[in-house]
Amino acid sequence: MIRVPRSVGISGLLVLMFLYLPVMVLIVLSFNASTMGVEWKGFSFQWYEKLLADRSIIDATVNSLMIASISTVLSLLFGLGAAIGLETWRGRHTSWMNILILLPLVIPEILMGVALLMVFVLFQVPLGFGSIIIGHMVFNVPLTVVILRARLRKLDPTWEDAARDLGATSWEVLTHITLPMLRPAIWGAALLSFTVSLDDFVVTFFVAGPGSTTLPLKVFSMIKTGMTPEVNALSAIMVVVSMVFVGLSWIFQQRAPVSPTTPSSSE
Amino acid sequence: MHTVVLENVVKTHGQVVAVDDVTLSIKSGEFFSILGPSGSGKTTILRLIAGLDVPDSGTITLQQRIVNADPPHVRPVNMVFQHYALFPHMTVFENIAFGLRMHRQSRQDIREAVEEMVALVRLKGKTQRFPAQLSGGEQQRVALARALVNRPVVLLLDEPLAALDQQLRQDMQAELKRLQQEVNATFICVTHQQDEALMLSDRLGVMHRGTLLQVGTPQEIYEQPVSSTVAKFIGLSNSLSGMVTRTENNFCWIQAEAFPTVMARCPEGGVEHGSATVMVRPERLHISVDGPVNGYENTFPAIVHHVVFHGNEMFYQFRLRNDAIWTARVPIAGTHARPLVPGQSVYLQWAAHDGLVLSS
């Protein structure tokens, strides 16, 4: 462990505060009984109760969960194919293929949103669930590929050799060896994709259609008519859910592809 | 009958020629070792036989059938990998059963075959463990069982004992021999340990930089190495370079600068006049402290350079006139009452038939 002066440690603490202060304020205010402003008028669950009673918010939640689930599953399928393909096919062009796959992650989202909208209009794709799912896949597939490839690189190729030597066809190697060993990374990628999809606003804003309002869009439309404590409550829920998912994703990705080391009870 | 035949096999990895025109026939039921330093291409030969690599040219024949184009999963061959490559997400039972499952055996047959194998490699009671919960020796036995349960015609072993400690290695050597007799398969073992190769093998091949230098029984290779490269790899050897001046009755006379004429055995097939190397094994040197004795054709004066106690034997290094270092091994039981001390002058003596001339 590196030993550092105490002041450096304190600055770390300040950075954490800087990062989390807005979120904390948001969560605290969501329990504020006051209808207006930031003045504390006592503890209350009323905004959460109001949320649950609001039909349009429930609809937006269902939309968001559906879109996130479908785009996550599709992104996993595409991402697995791309990751395994790129790892096995180590041709001359892989390095710029790598960059091309990652590029959607750094292109400004607003450009991506506009571009997607134009493509959908051009090909007369109706705006709605389908277009949002496709839009989310544009960033979820690269994300999945990055996570899966990191794990794939750590897999010892002699495992595959051993399986082939023992009679496995290349399809059986994939289903019996590669995929089980990738499982933690697959879970990690899925949770992260799901969260990113759930939270996305910009791309969704451009490609959404009538009847496909997601939670972030709902929050935005609520704010347009004025900051209400209801928005605080909704945002607080989204923040906590996102943090839990990202945390789980991280835990899955940390797992070694090795089975538990606890002694078995067979003896 | 030959189980495995390689004919003019060439395999390159990019610019590197891993296997360079190797021709080799391995008999059915034989324990054959391929001995060579790391990077000599010996593992590639195993991978070619297993089908994990495809030769650039040449043919590989398994049981009278050319298998060049056969993928690994249809070849009657199984491999024990260097670091075992056990599947970490499967139990010992699942690891051993993997090959049978891939070959669509019935559940009942698989259980019986695995249990039999588990007994054979002495892993009873550990079948529900994961590889990470096993010791190195146990992992090794799982790897052996996983390969042997498929009843391969040929078992390929890639440095099977390299990851084990000294004691375990000796036990596993005996274990390997026993297993081979019980399953009655051809074993092809790759190793860089010459003592391992000599002890285990019926025959062995010495590889160097992708080429097979010599094939023979351990004794043939130890006694009659075809070149100084083989001689050096098969055991510590003392060497002296000079010119062949005369050959007669399978003996050669060699003149080296600053030395009296040396008399030694000619290699089989004779030797050409010209430069050559004389090799003498450390255990064949006689050390005379009080002047040369009769009965040896060759006598070199030497200075004791270094003394190492090895438990059951003494290990001496001597400096010759040309500053070359020669080594001798003397069993403790037969050693002098007084061990030699560095700086002491002695005579190294050896009989003509204990020296071998190799053309350089």
What are its keywords?
heterodimer, A: 267 residues, mainly alpha, MetI-like fold, globular, disordered C terminus, B: 360 residues, alpha+beta, Rossmann fold, OB fold (Dihydrolipoamide Acetyltransferase, E2P), 2 domains, 6-stranded mixed sheet, 5-stranded antiparallel sheet, 8 helices, 36% strand
Give structural notes.
The complex is a heterodimer of chains A (267) and B (360). Chain A has helices spanning 6-29, 46-53, 55-88, 94-106, 109-122, 129-154, 157-165, 170-199, 202-207, 215-224, 229-254. Chain A is mostly helical. Chain A has one domain: MetI-like fold, CATH 1.10.3720.10. In chain A, helix 6 (129-154) packs across helix 8 (170-199). Chain B has 360 residues and is an alpha+beta fold. Chain B folds into two domains: 2-223, P-loop containing nucleotide triphosphate hydrolases (Rossmann fold); 236-359, OB fold (Dihydrolipoamide Acetyltransferase, E2P) (Beta Barrel). Chain B is built from eight helices and 20 strands. Chain B has a six-stranded mixed beta sheet with strand order 6-7-8-3-9-10, sandwiched between helices. Chain B has a five-stranded antiparallel beta sheet with strand order 13-12-11-14-20, with no helix packed on it. A five-stranded antiparallel beta sheet of chain B has the order 15-19-16-17-18, with no helix packed on it. In chain B, helix 2 packs parallel to helix 4. The longest helix of chain B has 18 residues, at 166-183. Chain B is elongated. The chains are: A mainly alpha (267), B alpha+beta (360).
